[in-house]
Structure formats: structure tokens, C-alpha cells
Amino acid sequence: MADRDFYQILGVSRDASQQDIQRAYRKLARQYHPDVNSDPAAAERFKDASEAYDVLSDPKTRSRYDAFGPDFRQVPEDMDPQTWRRMQAGARAGARAGAGASSGRAGPGGPGFSYTPGGDIDLDELFGGLFGGRAGRGFGPVPGADQTTDIRLTVEEAYHGTHRTIRLTGEDGTRTVDVTVPPGVTDGQRIRVAGQGGRGSDGARSGDLYLVVRIAPHRLYRLEGRDLHVELRLTPWEAALGTAVAVPTPGGEANVKVPAGTSCGRRLRLRGRGLPNTRGEPGDLFAEAKIMVPPRPTDAERDLLEQLAAVSDFDPRRRE
Amino acid sequence: MTYAVVRTTELDLDHFAAATGMHPELVRKFVTLGILDATCDPAGGLWFAPSQVAAAARIQRLRAGFALNYAAIGLVSDLLDRIAVLQTALRRARQPGG
Q1: Chain A residue with minimal CA distance to B72?
Q2: ipTM for the assembly
């Protein structure tokens, strides 16, 4: 990234010693190497740090970088920094084509070297040696590393499946990836997107991108794998006498039959009404009974409850 | 009454070298490679937290045991630290009621 300051990338001051620069680079490299850190953004940081270190670790290129800034590679070897600055200012100010004017002035400065910006120097050759050479050193083409990133879904999206466009900041800048999430993914599951990971060197294949599914907590549902848990609120008489209750699920309402004599905490299972599964059995729906009493009973309710208390010999605290 | 000017819990280069049995120049090299953490005072002296003595011992063991170079030891040390953090978290998550 030519527009970012190499010192800033390494997190060192401009007067840092060679030791400080090496220490900063080593630490960043260990943190952001694509095989250590599978975050797509890490690949970009690693590349930036390597580029910065390539330049700043060599006192010669470092002094040229200090003198000429990010464009130092386009500056001839024996250019005087002040002349270069004058040239740059002239190129910016001049209304005529800047290239011709500045090359005319640069010519006499370098004996035996005629420089035409953008003309004689093969940039590919210059850069190729620096960046292509790093990965390809004696290995031939090396496939790219796999990358991992989180994808956050609601319970409804996990149930029905969804499409997502994900923006990733990687070594080639920002890219977008279209992903189809199949119905019935579970929390922590990995979705593989082939060929969307780190770039391979010298035309080798790219790594894969893995999306780790994170399902956000839901107001009504709790997920355990593909099993869906909901709370089933009942009145004491519904629990005692039995009833049928409509329970919301992401796939529409499900009818739960509550048998007579249901106590708090009893789990009623509806087989196959949990999250769907494209490869096998779907999950189950568990409705857990929770008995609620009227917080402020009416006189009539209180009368009836007192009658019940007088008649009943049920003791929930008796141990058999 | 006198007060210590420097942080007494930290070790200077000579004391650190003595505590680890390493040559001070080797200690400096480890700091440059980023495999030992040290703070630098205004006079250029290095100061080490006591925990770095154990870190230095691990570096020496890894070097002797696996014939790793120092750059590789930095990576291995980082990964071992990460594994230790994850294992602790895993043990906590497995403890009933934890």
C-alpha cells in the first residue's frame, strides 16, 4: 500500500533503530502470517508489514524512502533529494505535459543515465523481484492459505437459509463474496466457499474461505444444535387438566398437546419441528412447561383456589 | 530516607542475563527478534519483567530440543501461549457450574 506510511505500518517512530524495526516486523509477522491468522484482513496486514520491512530493513532503501517518500522506486539512483522535490513541484505546477519537462531537467543530473518517468524503467521487474520473489523462493507455485471469518445469522435465517454478500478486506483490497447459506445451519458450523481464501503465488490455486456460523440469541428460541427450545407458559389448570397450545416456531406455528398432569419443567417434544437438515434428520422442537399463576387473582379466582386448597391432599414436598 | 529510582520488580540486562545464564548480547538479540519482551529506559537500558526469565528458559529448551532457529522459536512461543489460553478457557467451560 504505497499511500500508507511504512513506519506507521510497523508501528515504529521515524528515528527507530534497525533493531526496533526488526523487532516490530517479527512480532507483526507472527501475528498476521496467513497460516497463523486466518482472518482475511490479516493477509493484507502481513503483506503491508512485509513490504514495509523490505524497504526499512535495508539502510540504503530506507534512506531513499525517507528522502523521496513512497515513490522512491521511480527515482534514479543518483538523484539529489532537493532536485527531486523541485522536479515534483514543477511537474505539479506545470501546465504542460509534466513528464517531458521534468525529464529534460533530470537528464544532466545523472551522467550516462537518461530517465524518462514511466518510460525506461520496467516497474514489473522492480516489483517482481521484491514481492513475487518472497513466496516463490525456491518452492515454485504455492497454494494460498485458507481463511476464516464469522457470519452472523438470526435463528430465522438459520432455519430458512439465506443469501449474503460478504465484504472482505484481503491482500487484493476489498472484495465481495456472494454466499448461499443452506437451511438448517447450526451455531459453530463452517460453510466452505471454495477458492475465496488467500491467493496462491505464481498461479497456484487460492485457498478456501470458511464462514463460521454464529447464531444470534433470540427472544423466543434457544438453539442446541438443530434442536429448538421454547418456553411454554401454562396456567395451573391448563397444566393439571391438559390442553393444546399453539407454539411459535420459525417455520410457523406448531400445535403442542399438553397432557393432563404436566408439571413445571416438563419438556414436550415435537419430533422434526426443529431446524431442518439437508443431510439427514431434522432437529426437534422442545416446549418446556412453565406454570404461571395470576399475579393478582380476582376474588372469584381466590375463592376457587381456596376451595381447591381445602379439598386437595396433594403435597408436592412429600418424598416417597 | 532513600527511594529506588527504578522499578525494583524489573530486572536490568545484567541481572536478567545472570538469572537466565545467558550472555547479555544474546539477550539483546532475543529482544531484537521480538521473542523476549523488554522495555527501554531513556538511557537505552533494557528492563525485563520477572516472567521473562521463564520465557527465556523456554526459548533455550525449544532451541535445544527441536533445533529451531530463533525466528521459529518466536512463532512456536506465540502459538504455545495461545494454546495455553484456549486450554484454560476450555477447562473452565467444562467445569460443571463454571
Answers
A1: A30
A2: 0.73
